[in-house]
Amino acid sequence: MTDAAPRLHALVEQLLGVPLPVRVRAWDGSQAGPPDAPTLVVRNRRALRRLLFKPGELGLARAWVAGDLGIEGDLYHALDLLSGLVWERGDDARGLAQALRDPQFRAAALGLLRMAGLPLPPAPPREEVRRTRHHHTRHTDRRAISHHYDVGNDFYEIVLGPSMVYSCAYWPAPGATLEQAQHDKLELVCRKLALKPDQRLLDVGCGWGSMAVHAAREHGVRVVGITLSQEQAAYARKRVADAGLTDRIEIRVQDYRDVTDGPYDAISSIGMAEHVGAEKYLEYASGLYDLLKPGGLLLNHQIARRPERDESAYELDGFIDAYVFPDGELAPLGTTVTQLERAGFEVRDVESLREHYALTLRRWVARLDDDWQRAVRLSGPGRARVWRLYMAACAVAFERNRIGVNQVLAVRAPESGDSGMPLRSRTWN
């Protein structure tokens, strides 16, 4: 058989009701579709089996991670073209998951499979995390964090560079270096928190210690950084020692729910709240409120999704949830602000950094591509493919305004109502 690609291309277009914007090359060498478009490479029939038995995003993810599917050409362009079919289903197209469940498609695709005598679907790639629901207990949170962050510090050094900051940078211009942009982000957080020498800062989800080191070195504060990742903690402690800041920084492997040594003057939570979960978010916000002294400031840096018209119909992202951030949950910005206010905080400032995260992710992907073979040796080919796809897809999602990222500055205002904030609070600009 040397006509698999034309048959697949025509079938998908017929079922979706719109032209397929990418070229397809199948396992038999056949090709179909726009000649100048990025090419979706279907390397074997196993890719079809994955899609047939798990229609939609998760089936695509399994095929990608296993190496059954690939993309040749501009990865971002391909994801941008496909996003309308996979993520942004409109009135003029049924969407991939719905099309893959269509009896006509399944009958035709199964016909292709029968010619090869292929059996039932293969097992999911070993990189996939299996779970039943989002519990967000101390045990499940620790396991989820370990899955994502204990890939290996050497792997993260490839992706993140010397700054080892795994959150949105703050770009002075698109051509700036990643190191400068990450330095500027850490300084932005410190300035928003109005840090002063010898104040106590709690850094929730401290990662590899970048914020703690910057705040102690540049602003003279005393920092407690907490993480659930043993590998991160070991790396952060070494950085603290190398910087000569062991008298000012303590790194703990500790759940945020177990911190009891307040009050703190300020709290930074940068890229951590996405792991908290909707059911636990008020507990998280209330716990941080209780750890602050009156007049203390919280800087909550968090990715947000767009609200659904019917929030009860919201479903978690199949690929991200299964391969990247198990038990991670994104909430709309309005929900986050409401929960912070319910906990007692007064929200004083909200700043969107959406475009900044798109730039950051593109730099991370470039670094991964530049040292791809070493990354594969360190993490395995499946895990490296997971990180490449998730970072590139997220860059496109930020660019298309499917998701955003926001810094929310909030204060634990005293009972007197005097927040202590200056009349013109944006002194950090």
Automatic annotation (TrEMBL):
InterPro entries: CFA/CMAS, CMAS, MeTfrase_dom, SAM-dependent_MTases_sf
Residues the record marks as active site: 394
Domain of life: Bacteria
Keywords: Lipid metabolism, Methyltransferase, S-adenosyl-L-methionine, Transferase
Polyketide synthase-like methyltransferase domain: residues covered: 155-396
Region (Disordered): 121-143
Pfam families reported for this sequence: CMAS (PF02353)
Residue stretches of biased makeup (Basic residues): 131-141
CDD domains in the record: AdoMet_MTases (cd02440)
Family annotation (SUPFAM superfamilies): S-adenosyl-L-methionine-dependent methyltransferases
GO molecular function, one term: methyltransferase activity
GO terms of biological process kind: lipid biosynthetic process; methylation
Database matches in PANTHER family: CYCLOPROPANE-FATTY-ACYL-PHOSPHOLIPID SYNTHASE
Family to which the UniProt record says this protein belongs: Belongs to the CFA/CMAS family.
Identification of the protein by name: Cyclopropane-fatty-acyl-phospholipid synthase
Organism of this sequence: Streptomyces griseoruber
